[in-house]
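User: Hi! I have a protein structure encoded as tokens and I'd like to know what sequence might fold into it. I'm fairly new to this, so please keep things simple.
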């Protein structure tokens, strides 16, 4: 089993930045995939950014240039730096991992972009 714990969410003004962090209970190097997803009220969950074990990085088109996913092997976290936030980015952000063919989710962290 893999436990994922997100942190770093909160309230930010439009144009601001936040950094989300996801701590994993197993070494992130052992994960087949790691990523961030989000779900806004009344909408389906969507991918924000993801790393595959092969080293590929994918972003939702509207996040390119604003969001950056990264891994911190020392802290065993996968982080999401979010810049130039706008109200449409308001959502619960979830950490996702695939380990030995099984998909795991964190409990989510709320990001609210509002003035």
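Assistant: Happy to help. Inverse folding works backwards from shape to sequence: for each of the 115 positions I chose a residue that suits the local structure. Here it is:
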């Amino acid at each position: 089993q893999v436990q994922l714990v997100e942190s770093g969410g909160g309230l930010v003004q439009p144009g601001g930045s936040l950094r989300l962090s996801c701590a994993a209970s197993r070494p992130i190097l052992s994960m087949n995939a790691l990523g961030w997803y989000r779900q806004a009220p009344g909408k389906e969950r969507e991918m924000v950014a993801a790393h595959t074990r092969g080293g590929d990085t994918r972003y939702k088109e509207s996040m390119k240039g604003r969001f950056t996913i990264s891994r911190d092997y020392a802290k065993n976290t996968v982080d999401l730096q979010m810049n130039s936030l706008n109200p449409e980015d308001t959502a619960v952000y979830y950490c996702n991992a695939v380990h030995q063919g099984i998909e795991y989710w964190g409990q989510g962290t709320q990001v609210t972009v509002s003035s």
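A useful reference point when you look it over: The first strand starts at residue 4 and ends at 7. Feel free to ask if any position seems puzzling.
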